[in-house]
Amino acid sequence: IILKSKVNEITWNLTGDLFLLTTSQGTINVLEYPSLKEVHIVNAHPSNCFCIKFDPKGRLFFILNFSFNSI
Question: Whole-angstrom Cα distance, residue 21 to residue 4?
Fold first, then answer.
């Protein structure tokens, strides 16, 4: 896999067949695991996506974004 931006955080889904990573371009890249074939890109935010967590049941994921120039 070739990425064109910085990776901020990585995680697997609860079943371990998907690998998710957040990027400095505001995307969440979803990859099949273990092949690492890209299956989806979520345009989640206009700037960095820093953290990603699944809910305890694995149905939803949450991201944390913030801007260094916010007031």
Answer: 13
